[in-house]
Structures are given as structure tokens and as C-alpha cells.
Amino acid sequence: MKITKDLYQGSLALLTDFYQLTMAYAYWKSGKGEQEAVFNLFFRKHPFQGGFTLAAGLDYVIDYCSNFRFGKEDIEYLSQMKAPDGSPQFEKGFLEYLSELKFSCDIDAVEEGTVVFPNAPMVRVKGPLIQCQLLETPLLNILNFQSLIATKAARINLAAKGEPVLEFGLRRAQGIDGALAASRAAYIGGCASTSNVMAGKLFGIPVSGTHAHSWIMSFETELEAFEAYADAFPNQCVFLVDTYDTINGIKNAIKVGQALRKKGKEMMGIRIDSGDLAYFSNQARELLDEAGFPEAKIVASNDLDEHIITSLKGQEASINVWGVGTKLVTAFDQPALGAVYKLSAIKTENGIFQPKIKISQQSLKINIPGIHNVKRYYSNDKAVADMIYLENEEINPRGTVIIDPTDPTRRKRIMPAFYQEEDLLKPIFKKGKAVYQSPDIQKIRERAQKQLDSFDKTHKRLVNPHLYPVGLEENLHHLRMELVLQAKKMENGNA
């Protein structure tokens, strides 16, 4: 599946912030454009006040980078831009440089469906400064949104405790692109199907849906509407019962279900979209069971999210399937993940990568310098800790200490020899060539579930989750502190 090919028919190089182009021009003008650099994409805080984040969107990134180029129309548009004094915004030589630009970066990234944590890189980009800089905005755009929605979906599915969650959000999503990306990410996060037929076609996601209130209202009676629907779809009848009176709607569904059974067919269930879902679902269960339909499913919708589902379960609602729309595809309670993209190293004239640091009055915003990766340690297939470490660093198998990047007093001793380990950043591109074969969406979804299963339930609590240990390897922590102190000396004029 090729996103740009199917949806855009061309280059997306101009899907960027203007300041990326002005910096690219300034790099070119100063002769730094081809200087090699390393950037990391990471986030600083889990969304939804949760204890985990689920990575999604890498397939879009691969497609974007594989098709990265400035086309003729892009160059023509840029050539028409004017500076405030009326002169061309960009020199002709720079535009010629862009027109001949070929993607040549190395990209390492966590695989889709991986559980990730604050401050640890999700993506590492290494290559010419101009190319690395131009990738910042599109990568953030793609990964911020899809990871956010996949995480929301995972939380909703945790609340549903194994019962199917159907994604119904197309009509409330943020435009066409947002709807497609949300449907894909929601499926990765555990949803069983989508109502979005185009997402089904493009991504291979199961689609589902029944009928709306307008179907019922187009007939003289509700019973007549149910009978006509059963005639059209005798093998997949789920009746929406709350157009007029919910209890009568349930009884009418039972009547049609009994008529179907005489024809050798079976009613699948009913859907309730309004009112007291706990009360009406329990009434429905009682009526369905008494009428001989104990296998009929009760589907609930109506602005559901993980908290409402948890409340309904606490009320012992008789709901088997959950239809979730607006609050899932818009990430209603937190509209952005907030991932950032920071320079962490730059190659000097002697061919050595120099670690770079950004300091801030907020310790949370001090980046992690150098070229680093993330190791996840497992014990009997259960994740015990993540360590951010310098790639050229030898890790002592008999023991090392990881130090929380935001609170140095939080430390944990790791004995690597006693654990299984996995490097989370995988090679995706080498010198601009894709070296990673994206798995199909079913495999990504399975990975997400396996990843979530590997974490203790306390880390997946929807409220006040237990903090999973993620820390800097000792030597990386010391390097970071040394660079912070050097930067502060320069800031105070003591260099």
C-alpha cells in the first residue's frame, strides 16, 4: 500500500513548515548543507495521563521518505516566493540544489506496535543537515497523530476487557487524511473493525456497520423497517432499537429475530445508541434471553471512551460490543502527543560526531546528546526496564545503573546477563535505500497486543499508572551532565 501514490499522486516535499525551508536555505548558503548530523524524534510525556504509548505511523514515514523529492511544480512555487523587500526568497542555485536532491539518510526507528516511553528515541535520522531538517515536520505530523490514536485505541480496548471495539469515527474525524490515519492507527491499537470503507480498502482493515435512525424513520413503523432490513441482510442483522422507544424497539427486534429463525437464519444482535446504556442493556439482555436469544449481542455506542466503558462495566451493563467514534479518532481529551525532533550530534571536520545539547530552564526540555539506542530488558517475556545508551558504549553484562533523565535520584540497577534484551531502534533506511520490509497491518496489530501483554497490568492502569523504569545508562548520564555544565558556563560567559 502506497499512501502518496493512492491519495496524492506526487511529491509531498512541501508538506512542511516554512522555517524548515528557510533553515535549509541558510544551511546551503553557509556551506553546511551536506554536513552530517543526527536528529532524534521523541516525546516527553505519555498522553491521557497514562503509563504507556503505542508507536504507529512508520509505514507512512517509509512511504514519505521513499517518495521524497522536489518536483517541477514545487520548485516553480518556491521560485515565486518573495522576501519582504520584493527580492526572490530563495536563490536560483538553491532551487537547483533542491530539484536535484536525492534522499540519502539513514533512518532507524521503533517498529509499529511497539510500546514506547518518554525521552527514548522513536526515530533516529542521520544524514546531511538539509535533509534531516526537512524531515522534521512531516515525521512529527505522521507519528504524533497515529501514535496518539493507537494509544487511545489501546486504552479503550483495555477498558473493554477483550470485548470487541468497533471504530465508528469517520464522520467526526479531522478531515479525510485524519480519518484514514485514525482508522489505521485504531486498528493497530486493537479495534476489531472500522466503519471507514476507504480505510478498509487501503489498509486491509475489516469493515462493519448496520443502519442508522434514518432507515427506521423512512418507514411507517419500526417493525416494518426491521423486517425490510432483515429481508436485505438476513445473515447479519443488528437492529438499532432506540429510534422511538428503546424497550419497544428491543421487542420489535425479537419479533423479527423469531421470523428469521423460522427461515433458518439467526439475528446477530441489537444496538443501543442513547439513553441509560447500563439500564437498557440489562433490560435488553433479559428480554433477549427470555425470548430464546442468549447469543444475540448487545452493541452500545454514544460518545464512549475508556472511562465511560469502565463505568458501564462497573454498573454490570450487559454490553458485548462497543462502538466508539468521536472520542477515539479525535483523541478527544488530548488532541496532540507532543513529540519533538532534536539535533543530538553533528560531524566535525575531523570526521567525529560531536554530541550536542539543548539546555532549558525546564529540565524536562534538556535533550539527550549523542548517537544512542534503546535496549528493552525482559524476564520470562515480561518487560522490566528500558535503557537509553550510547551505541558505541560497551554495556557491562554484570551490572549497570540506569538513571531517570528527568529525576537523577530515580535509579535502577540492571544485570543484563540475567535478562533477555532487544534493541528497539531497527534499521529502516541505509543511505536513502529502504532496508526494512513493513509487515502487514495484521502483524503490526498482533505485535501491539504482544507488546502490551509483556507489561505488568500496573503500567497499563487507566488512572494513576505505575511508572515503568526508563533511564540513561551511567556513561550517557555523565556525558549529558557534563555538556549541560559546559553550556551553562558558556551562557554565563565563563567559557
From TrEMBL:
InterPro entries: Aldolase_TIM (IPR013785), N/Namide_PRibTrfase (IPR041525), NAPRTase_C (IPR041619), NAPRTase_N (IPR040727), Nic_PRibTrfase-Fam (IPR007229), Nic_PRibTrfase_pncB (IPR006405), Nicotinate_pribotase-like_C (IPR036068). Pathway: Cofactor biosynthesis; NAD(+) biosynthesis; nicotinate D-ribonucleotide from nicotinate: step 1/1. Transiently phosphorylated on a His residue during the reaction cycle. Phosphorylation strongly increases the affinity for substrates and increases the rate of nicotinate D-ribonucleotide production. Dephosphorylation regenerates the low-affinity form of the enzyme, leading to product release. Its EC number is 6.3.4.21. Keywords: Glycosyltransferase, Ligase, Phosphoprotein, Pyridine nucleotide biosynthesis, Transferase. GO terms for molecular function: nicotinamide phosphoribosyltransferase activity; nicotinate phosphoribosyltransferase activity. NCBIfam families: NAPRTase_put, PRK09243.1-2, PRK12484.1. This is Nicotinate phosphoribosyltransferase. The lineage of its organism: Bacteria, Pseudomonadati, Bacteroidota, Cytophagia, Cytophagales.
